[in-house]
Structures are given as C-alpha cells and as structure tokens.
Design brief:
Strand order of the largest sheet of chain A: 2-1-3-4-5-11
CATH superfamily of the largest domain in chain A: Response regulator
Mean pLDDT of chain A: 95
CATH class of the largest domain in chain A: Alpha Beta
Number of helices of chain A: 12
Low-confidence stretches of chain A: none
Order of helices and strands of chain A: HHHHEHEHEHEEHEHEHEHEEHEE
Strand content of chain A: 15-25%
Shape of chain A: elongated
Distance between the termini of chain A: 67 Å
Number of domains of chain A: 3
Oligomer: homodimer
Amino acid sequence: MTGVTLSDVAQRAGVSRAAVSRTFTAGASVSAKMRARVEAAARDLGYSPNLLARSLTTRKTQLVGLVSNNFQNPVFLQIFDLLTKGLQDRGLRPLLVNLSDETDPARSVQLLRQYSVEGVILATSHLPQGFASAFRDAGVAVVHAFGRPTGQTDVVGIDNVAAGEMAAQTLMARGYRHVGFMGGPEQASTTQDRLAGFAAAAQALGGVVSHSFAGAYSFEAGRGEMARLLSGPRAEAYFCADDVLTIGALSAAQAAGLRVPDDLGLIGLNDMAMAGWANINLTTIHQPFDAIVRGAMDLMQDRFANPDRAPQTRLFPCHIVDRGTLRPL
Amino acid sequence: MTGVTLSDVAQRAGVSRAAVSRTFTAGASVSAKMRARVEAAARDLGYSPNLLARSLTTRKTQLVGLVSNNFQNPVFLQIFDLLTKGLQDRGLRPLLVNLSDETDPARSVQLLRQYSVEGVILATSHLPQGFASAFRDAGVAVVHAFGRPTGQTDVVGIDNVAAGEMAAQTLMARGYRHVGFMGGPEQASTTQDRLAGFAAAAQALGGVVSHSFAGAYSFEAGRGEMARLLSGPRAEAYFCADDVLTIGALSAAQAAGLRVPDDLGLIGLNDMAMAGWANINLTTIHQPFDAIVRGAMDLMQDRFANPDRAPQTRLFPCHIVDRGTLRPL
DNA sequence: CCGCCGAATGCTTTCGTTTGCAATCGAAAC
DNA sequence: GTTTCGATTGCAAACGAAAGCATTCGGCGG
C-alpha cells in the first residue's frame, strides 16, 4: 500500500512536518543533520512525496498534454519517441490524448485543463478549427508542432510552401516536365501549402502540373489514389506529400508493372526511418524531426517562463535525401 | 487564466461550497433547482472541477501509466492507438513512460507512484527483472501485456511456445525440411519461447533446425542477421520472431538475388498493418492485438475492484495469415 | 558573560475538493 | 394546524503537502 505520508515520516523522525517538507523541496533551509535524519526515516518508511498534493500549493504539475490524431502513420512513433524522451529529460510528464475518434474537441481541452496540465504539444498537421487557440485562451502554454503558422499560437515545423518548391525544383532539375502532386486530406494545411509551393515553382520552371488528393496520410490511400491516376494519362513524376503515401504509390506503380524511377519518378516528404529501408529506398525530403521536437519543447518551456510573450514561429530547413525513386541528375 | 474554483461558483450562486461539489459529483443528493442554479453559475464562470484536488480526498486519479520501450517497432503505434482509445473510453488517462533510455527502472516505478497512478500497463516483452512485481508491491494494479506468464502478476498476450509450434508446423506442412529461427534480443522472453516451441515442433516432425538472434526487433537487425546467414549454408525457410525482423530479412534476401518464396521461405509474427501492404505482403502469424489490449484493460480494471485476487493470465489464440512469403501447400 | 544576527525549526494557514454529520426544509398524513 | 420523516442543505474537518511568520538555536565579537 502506498499510504505513507509526510506526517508519518515526521512522526517517525520526531520532527515537524515542515522539516520533512523542506528536505524534499529543493533550495529550502535545512541543516545537514536534520536532512540526514529525515532521509533515514523516509527510507525506512518508503516515503516519496505525493506530486499531486504538492501541485495544489505550488501550482506546478509538471504535466503536459501530448495530443495527436496520427496513429496510422508510422512516422509518429519516431516522433513520440523523441517527444517522450525529451520531456522526461526535462522533468515533464506527457499525458497522451488520442484525438482520432473525438467528435468534440472542446472535451479534450476541458479534460486537459481538469488535469491542470501546464502545457500542451499538438503533434499533428490536421486540427479542428480553433483547437490551438482554445488552449491558449484557457491559459495553458500550447505549441503546435507540424502546423501552419497563424500568428495566434506558437508553431514549430517546416516551411511547407518551400518544401513544395524544393520538390518541384528537384523534379524539374532531373528532367521531368509533366509533374503531379498527390496530397493527403485536402483540408490539411500541410497538403495545401505543399501543393501551393509545388505548383507555383513547377509552373515557373515551365512544368506542366496536375494534382489530386488521397483522403488520408496512409499507405492504402496512397496506393488507391496512384492506382486511379495510373489508369488515365499520367505524369512523369509525382511529389507525394508524405512518405507513407509515397510508399503506397510505389506499391501501385509496381503492381501496374511500371519501373521506378525509369517509367515513373516519385519523391516523398518526411524521410521517416522506413524510407531508408533497402527494399523501399525512397528519394524524399528530410524533415528534421529532432530539431522540430526540441523546438516545440523549448518554445513551451519558454512560455512557462513568460506567458504573455507574443506567439512565435520556428521553421527548420529541409533537405533532399537522394535514394532510388528518382532518376539521377 | 484557469483560476476559477468551487468557492467562486458557490459565491456567485449564493450557495454553500458543498452544494457546488455535489452538483459535480455523480450520485449526490441535490435538488433540481439547486443543480440548475449552480450549473448556471458554473457556466458563467467557466468552471470545471480540479481533478487533482479531487483525487486528494477520493483517492482516485483515473491516471494509468503506459510503459513501453518499443518505440522502434511500428507495430507499437497500432498498439498505442488501441490502448489510448480504449483507456479514454473507460474514462482513464494514460501517462506515457518511455523506458528506452532508462538505466534505473526503479525510478520509473517511483515516478509513477508519485503521480498516484491507479494502474500500469506494461506494453513490452522485454523488461528488466522484477519490474512488474515492483509495481505490484507498491500497490498499483499492474498488467503486463505481451509478456511471459509468471504467476506473479497479471499477464495478457499469446502463448509464444504455441506460436513457435504453429510456425514450425506450417513450414513443415509446406515441405520445408531445413528450417531456421531468427529471434530478436536473446534475453527477450518472446524470442526464447518462440524458439523453444519452434525447435521442439520442427524436430518432432523430422525437421532440421538452426537458430540465431538479431540483437533487436528492428528492420536493420533483421536485415543484418539475414545477410550474415545467407553468406553461409542456409536453411530453406526461416521463422522470424517479429514482422519487422521479417521485413528486414526479406530485404536482405532480395538484395542477395533470392526469390521469395521460391528460393527462400519466410514467416513472421504479429501481422502488423504493414505486413499486409502489397509490396511487402508477408505470410505471418496474426497476433490479436485488439483482444490483448482489451484484455489488459479489463484485467487492470478488474484488479481495481478486487486488489487482492490472485494473479491471472489471459492468452489469446493466433492464426496464420497466408500471403506471399511462403510457397503454397 | 552579554548582546547580536543569521540560520534552523516549528506553527499554522492554505491549496481545491469531498464527505460525515447535524440542521433545515417541505410535503404528506393526521 | 401539528407531526413526522425523507430529501436537501450547510458546516467543518479532512486529504497531503508548501510556505509565511514567529520562534529558537548557535556562534561570534565585544
């Protein structure tokens, strides 16, 4: 039973409860003798302070909400790994919220507030309207990772328009002229921005551009959409807005008997671990997850310290990783 | 600012604090008139109860620890998805703990205890000695998902020995005689048990068995180990103890110019989503994740209700999913 | 030996909520 | 108009811990 409290320790050590409290709170005034005595008693009893009770008076819970709706895309496991490790290193505890089936986002906001989280990290590009600001209005430090800059809340990620341009420039430089864009969900800001950058840059370079949307960032969506595209007149190369989509597209191309990259070029975005697997071997745009995740945590903690500063946006540069799905220069 | 408390609502509604508390705790005695009045005041002020403060008196936090060290294996994203959704449906909140870099497991135990979690779900097969019992000793309901039954704590998963036997029987039935086992980490109970079942059954059926271990349940480990195996005399078919290992092995086989399944048979275990992707298309043993995850939550809640019952084990049946990496019957 | 002062310690209130207990209310039965 | 009794309500004491304030301690200079 985990029922040993401050008072128990105080009693056993024969000191006041305040003394016990002090030996367990950093930077409090306790003599070495007192500290030793209390620590001995605490060890005997197996005491450790109740963080929830402590949070009542300190108003610090060390709890942060980790909110996502991307439990289908393997890249998010990498992201969760980085995020949980990083938060643990900073002494913060992630309360995980799966938004996938949530019809009413306001419930999640309330829920996290009820647990007095100090901050929230939104790890997703596809978010209900006003979700991020709801947290800000509730007074919790919120940062939107992989989101679109709005000026309303802290955002960290990449410049998706620039990433689209980079994809277009790469394709054109490799000599593809008729190029296509395959997005994820049409409303996702990532899809929209990547398309915008891609189309503008490709046209500026004299390319012929087409585009379409797979309904989701998933293998099946990418495969299905590419199969559909291949049944009609097709482009010479496609920029798929996400690696897992690209893998789906690759699978459809192979099924249709096309050789990649000879018959069809493909470039993805993310550079998830799987993209480097030898039997997948995607040419793709690397998104610097570690920097983004670290930036998200930094920004959140920065807001802890300074709740009223203006919203800030941090975008990190991407680069091409050249593998096997685009013909060489 | 999220500073509105019970007292604020009581004051505005002109009633006692107890009355407010009662309208927010299920099954308390409040008149309809009182409830309406309090709810109006609460709405005006934007009040919602502080769960952490509540937990102080009720001794219920609704918090459960979700502990894992498998942030490399994509199958765990599916598992996290099921787990988080299931917990949310039951009104429980997962506190995520990443064990990967943790040198001292006792710290995690203490940490979770400090947050007064009511239960812990261990989602991993590879666990430091005595980790599960440490939770049990601390009085928190712990269930080990994907673990080996010990009789010491609640365990839910599959019969890994039987799964190994099933793999062996399948290979022998397809006419493979010289068969190999490729495990993950040698100390992982899953690796050990699957090997035991596999070797025994294959030998009983007149097979010739060899075995080796990739150091981890990861693509690179599987690919590396299979590359090593292919450089010497090789078996006709391999049972790889995990799908992601199998995909690695598949990649190595393809790189060596072998046709699968004609030159080399492969069977995996898990049936993760990716195994069904058309360009991977693994023949594998399906592990019923949804049943296991549901079982884990059931067992945990069952222990909430009855803390002193004997440890229980729930194993679910597996079945073969026939795809493209084993020759047909 | 006395006075002084900073460091240690203890007392008590407080954080936001629940809950046992006692007091009050209201309506039905007389 | 009384009684009576169950349903509501308020009061006050917890829950486990932090921190302001006042008190005591200990060592120093004089």
